[in-house]
Specification:
The chain is of the alpha/beta class and about 350 residues long. It has two domains: about 150 residues, P-loop containing nucleotide triphosphate hydrolases (Rossmann fold, 3-Layer(aba) Sandwich); about 180 residues, Zinc Finger, Delta Prime, domain 3 (Up-down Bundle), CATH 1.20.272. It contains 15 helices and nine strands. The strands form two sheets. A seven-stranded mixed beta sheet has the order 1-2-7-3-6-5-4. It has a two-stranded parallel ribbon with strand order 8-9. Strand 5, helix 3 and strand 6 form a beta-alpha-beta unit.
């Protein structure tokens, strides 16, 4: 359900007026006379706009689609595109670069908000910044009967996990928790790559996507191998962790992200060591996903606070060694794995 948000918009004489329009997530986009797509996450914004286009096209195949650059707009161009056609086809006008808009577009769009054309959807893509603030304030105050679709960058691992999970859920495809975590970790640096990887896995004919499925497609990704090494070591499987480490290094893995994978998991364990409460409550408290809380709790079995402290110290030393502070990064990694596998008792 769309949430309504209130804010304050500056009026021309310094007064403030209450503003309230629906704000939607990227995957909740729907038709409206004016659709403001804001935020810095380009991939989500493009997908949202494409989804809206597909929806309008399915509703009426005669849809006329026009593209306009707000930073290169001629006088009257917007109004011409929005004018009803001879046969009254619905129209979609996609406006790019609103954050760089020229004065011509700004003035024409402000005028347009007073009387949007019937049967026309104007999508405004604003990637951030102060340019065009007057227009954004007018839309957010209700001008043009608009809505806002917010596409902020997904920075937290839990957000990326939720995104990937939604991809499989929308496709009706089952995936194990471990496989979902692996693919999210493997493509955490690029949302477009993560979405592409999810679609590749979704197209697999297996009834359920497992760790083996992910490894078949993306076993060479550094992050996937890194977390496989960390998982084995934290569980106390020293031999398996060493074998997986050597496979990762032979596949071209860089030691730095390998150490980062260990650090991520051990720090999460340290945060939750001794914490009390439900998964949802602790997830909110520590900025994690509930699955991360559950996984860390399982990983903590057999560990002591002293062991965690010892491993955190070793991780810091290893990180320095693999970044040039030591002569043999492989030896440093193997020593780290030995100590982690012993739960910090070695």
């Amino acid at each position: 359900m769309a949430a309504r948000v209130s804010s304050k918009a500056n009026a021309s004489k310094g007064r403030t007026v209450a503003a309230s329009i629906p704000q939607l997530a990227w995957n909740q986009i729907r038709p409206a006379p004016v659709v403001l797509v804001s935020g810095t996450e380009v991939f989500l914004a493009e997908r949202a706009i494409r989804s809206l286009r597909d929806r309008l096209k399915s509703e009426d195949p005669s849809l006329e689609i026009s593209d306009l650059a707000a930073n290169d707009c001629a006088p009257g161009e917007l109004l011409t595109l929005a004018s009803p056609s001879l046969f009254g086809e619905p129209r979609l006008i996609r406006v790019a670069n609103v954050e760089k808009c020229n004065d011509v577009f700004l003035n024409d769009m402000l005028d347009y908000l007073a009387a949007p054309a019937d049967g026309t959807v104007v999508v405004l893509r604003h990637g951030g910044g102060v340019r065009g603030k007057k227009l954004l304030d007018a839309i957010r105050a209700g001008g043009g009967s608009g809505i806002e679709v917010v596409c902020t960058e997904l920075k937290r691992d839990s957000d990326k996990y939720d995104f990937a999970q939604a991809e499989f859920r929308a496709a009706g495809k089952k995936i194990t928790a471990g496989a979902l975590r692996s693919v999210t970790s493997a493509f955490s640096d690029d949302l477009a790559e993560l979405a592409g990887a999810c679609q590749q896995l979704i197209s697999d004919s297996a009834a359920e996507i497992t760790d083996a499925t992910v490894d078949k497609y993306y076993g060479g990704r550094v992050e996937t191998n890194a977390f496989q090494v960390a998982d084995a070591a934290i569980a106390g499987r020293h031999g398996e962790a060493l074998v997986t480490l050597r496979h990762a290094l032979a596949s071209g893995a860089d030691p730095v992200p390998l150490v980062a994978a260990f650090a991520s998991k051990v720090r999460t364990m340290a945060k939750l060591s001794g914490a009390r409460g439900g998964s949802g409550q602790l997830a909110q408290q520590f900025g994690l996903a509930p699955w991360q809380v559950d996984r860390a709790r399982r990983d903590l079995q057999g560990w002591t606070d002293e062991g965690l402290g010892r491993c955190i110290e070793i991780l810091a030393e290893t990180d320095a060694n693999v970044k040039g502070g030591g002569r043999d990064p492989v030896f440093a990694l193997e020593r780290m794995i030995r100590i982690v596998s012993s739960h910090g008792r070695d």
